[in-house]
Specification:
Blueprint: E1 16-19, H1 29-33, E2 39-41, E3 47-49, H2 60-64, E4 70-73, H3 88-94
This protein binds iron/sulfur cluster (SF4) (2 copies).
């Protein structure tokens, strides 16, 4: 049985998580809650998606991240072309 995944509409939106490595503090919460077990720690303990095809787009990683370091990137949606390591102010500064 998978945690609380049933509490959210399954595949209500398609997308895979994009991580802001600067904001991730390597707490491991998203890894612990991912019902598909497709998130793993990198060498610094920060979360990364290791199996995009296995992700069911449930959004739990985004919901549970206390540091807003995860965004479900919906193809064609807002922020689709955003660099996950760069926030809007940084992007604006370049212009
Ligand atoms: S969206 Fe769901 S299945 Fe995909 S990585 Fe996040 S918690 Fe795991
Ligand atoms: S929950 Fe957020 S801060 Fe914690 S490991 Fe996952 S992405 Fe990083």
């Amino acid at each position: 049985m998978s945690h609380t995944a049933e509490a959210l509409p399954q595949n209500s939106r398609k997308g895979i998580p994009v991580f802001n490595v600067d904001w991730c503090k390597a707490c491991g919460i998203c890894i612990a809650f991912c019902p598909q077990e497709v998130l793993k720690e990198d060498e610094k303990g920060k979360a990364r998606l290791v199996d995009p095809d296995g992700c069911n787009s449930c959004g739990l990683c985004e919901v549970y991240c206390p540091d807003f370091a995860v965004v479900i990137d919906v193809p064609g949606g807002d922020g689709d072309d955003a660099d996950p390591g760069e926030d809007e102010s940084q992007a604006a500064a370049r212009e």
